[in-house]
Structure formats: structure tokens, C-alpha cells
Amino acid sequence: MDARLNYRTSRTAKKVMGHFMALGKVLKESALPAETQELVALRVSQINGCAVCVDMHAKEAAAAGESALRMNMVAVWREATVFTEAERAALALAEQGTRIADGADGVSDEVWANAAKHFDEEQLASLVISVSFMNTVNRLNVITQQPAGDYQVGQLH
């Protein structure tokens, strides 16, 4: 499968993607726990059907020591007992922030308050930006049908 667009050969795309990668680096270095970042990125990418990002974040999470069990359970996190309350709060916010079109109210006050119980303002800022970032990158990849499966850990860092 070939991508519809090569982000490395289009001058505009290459420049914009460079900015995206810089933003991703800032987020990686943020106060939001790395485990939470990867779980959120994986879940948002699952919802959006972005194979490239599912591939990347599953491999990055595994390389960082995340268990296969927890990665496999992200899609059904509500019923899974393997996530902390903070991770569950982050996943709830990520899902509601991703599924905006599915609910007229966006992120509910209840979900926001629960996340705020577990994360300070800096971490919340990182979480919100991470969810938005992943949604944008997912759409770029899905629209252009970027192929997945050959990502190597650290490739984009």
C-alpha cells in the first residue's frame, strides 16, 4: 500500500510536519507521565482508526516497559482492572475529547473534574494538547492512507 501523499517530498508538508514533530517533543518532555501519554495516544489512535499511530505508540509503549496486557486492554479500559484511577481519568478525557461529534457537550464537567483530581494544571495542559495533537496527526495519516507496520522505536524522536 502506498500513501496518497509523501510528507517528506512536499515542501509545505515537510515544513509543517517538522513543526508537529517539535510539538511532539515538547509534549514528550512534559510533566504528564510517559505511560499516560502513550496510553492516551494509543486510545485516541484506535478510535480514529490511525494504523500508523497505533503501530508507533504500541511499539514506543512496549519499549518503555508497558505490558502487552495493558496495551491490549486500552480499547476496553472501562472494564479493565489494570489501569490506575489517574490513567482512567486521562483515558475518559481523551475519549470525550476525541469523540466531540458524538456528544453535543464535548468533554463533560464530570470527566474534567475527575481528571483535575489526578493531574495538576501543567499535566492537564499537556493532556489536553496531547489529545488534540493526536487527533490532528491521526487525521493527517488517515486522509493520506499512510501505511503502517514498519515503525521502528525512536524513529521520529
TrEMBL record:
InterPro entries for this protein: AhpD-like, AhpD_core, CMD-like
Domain Carboxymuconolactone decarboxylase-like: 18-95
Pfam families linked: CMD
Organism listed in the record: Streptomyces niveus
Domain of life assignment: Bacteria
Protein name: Carboxymuconolactone decarboxylase family protein
